[in-house]
Design goal:
single chain, 294 residues, alpha+beta, Glucose Permease (Domain IIA), nine-stranded antiparallel beta sheet, 4 helices, globular, M23ase_b-sheet_dom, M23 family metallopeptidase
Length: 294
């Protein structure tokens, strides 16, 4: 286990320790000063500070400037960009999990096809209400599958104000403490060679058409878009990074061939892949059996 991986494991353990102390204090009234409950959080902060110092800066930040790596788009059809690195970096506000240059995309087959944000009602929507759910996702280049996970359930949307607050204040914190798998949800990582890896996150449960060790070709259908992990609605979270483990990898800038990097709110169209690539309908549908516990 690398020093960075060990630090992240201890960091999450300290966060869980804080929750355990608060719960124990409320249940048993130990009588110690309330601020003692925050000791694990202080230790967690000190740990990350030390790792930052030894690492010569933010441990997740890219080590050196790199030219964007050109790859094919991972989707076909009409989509819109959110949280784009064309507008700011880190695109999601943090360098963690190798997402400095990550981008989110949502399907927009036509204006109004995607349900919008609702202040109060409906509180949640089914994943199938969004056009991105079930959309085929393609290999952006030739590569090898080095990580694959599709056992987590697709949850309801968080596209109302109460739902979004729940995601940010409660669910997101729990997922953060539970590790990178719970953040990304169902996901896969491709090794593209030359120290570059492509990550696809929030995939549909049971939709992976590849497994670890498989060699894939550019344009090949890999999985379907879902709403698993730390996600507010069905969408694809895509990023390039310099290692296979998002816990320790650093972000790598990308550009999509023929498109570039779309800005926030920008709509873009991607034609269907060449006939040689597997057709989207060749991908088996996920099992209709009830979800297994995540």
């Amino acid at each position: 286990m690398s020093a960075r991986k060990l630090a992240m494991t201890v960091f999450r353990g300290l966060q869980l320790g804080f929750v355990a102390l608060v719960a124990a204090d409320l249940c048993f009234d130990w009588g110690h000063p309330w601020w003692w409950n925050f000791l694990p959080l202080v230790l967690a902060h000190l740990l990350i500070t030390v790792v930052n110092r030894w690492g010569g800066g933010a441990p997740d930040a890219p080590r050196a400037a790199r030219e964007p790596v050109e790859v094919a788009p991972p989707v076909t059809g009409r989509w819109s960009a959110l949280n784009s690195p064309a507008d700011r970096t880190p695109s999601h506000g943090v360098h963690a999990y190798g997402q400095t240059y990550a981008i989110d995309v949502v399907a927009e087959p036509e204006p109004g096809a995607r349900p919008g944000f609702s202040p109060l009602w409906p509180l949640v929507r089914r994943p199938a209400d969004f056009p991105a759910f079930g959309a085929p996702l393609h290999a952006v280049a030739d590569g090898t599958v080095v990580r694959a996970d599709d056992r987590q359930r697709d949850h309801l949307s968080r596209t109302s104000l109460p739902g979004l607050l729940y995601l940010m204040l409660i669910e997101g914190s729990v997922r953060e403490m539970s590790g990178v798998r719970r953040i990304l949800g169902n996901h896969l990582v491709l090794d593209l060679g030359d120290g570059t890896h492509a990550a696809y996150a929030h995939l549909r449960r049971g939709s992976l058409a590849v497994r670890v060790g498989d060699t894939v070709r550019a344009g090949q259908v890999l999985a379907r878009c879902g709403n698993s992990g730390n996600s507010s609605e069905p969408h694809l979270h895509f990023q390039l990074m310099d290692g296979p483990d998002p816990d320790t990898a650093r972000g790598v800038p990308f550009t999509w061939r023929g498109i570039g990097v779309p800005r926030n709110g920008e709509t873009f169209d991607v034609p269907q892949p060449a006939p040689a690539a597997p057709a989207p309908d060749s991908l088996p549908e996920p099992s209709d059996f009830p979800f297994r516990p995540a």
